Amino acid sequence: MSAKTALTKKDEAIINHLVNTGMSKNMAKTIVVLADGKETISVTIEGITALRQPEVSIVMQDLRVKKWVKKRDIKKEGKGRPVHAYKLAMPFVKIIEAVEKEEEKKVKEIQSNIEKLKKLVK
Q: Which of 114, 22, 34 is nearest to 71 (CA)?
């Protein structure tokens, strides 16, 4: 399990840069908590990020759709819902590369749009 107990200044800087790419702050915080590659339970993520359980669940659904995170259910003894444990499905650097590709695509779309505008006003 993750040894992280709080976000560091470096973590906060990474979160801010991820948010600047258009990523939600909740997603950025969650990814940074998982960045060490260790499995982390949802309650720990909630505590570190100051997110509520429903917010963590929504982010995790989105991250699983992107195939960036794996989920594992840990059965509790007795009755009750299982505990959800999450882990990055790929190294953090690969996620940054995916974000980079998305950003490059946006830049190309902006450049294409500007070129089309220039042609229209000539």
A: 34
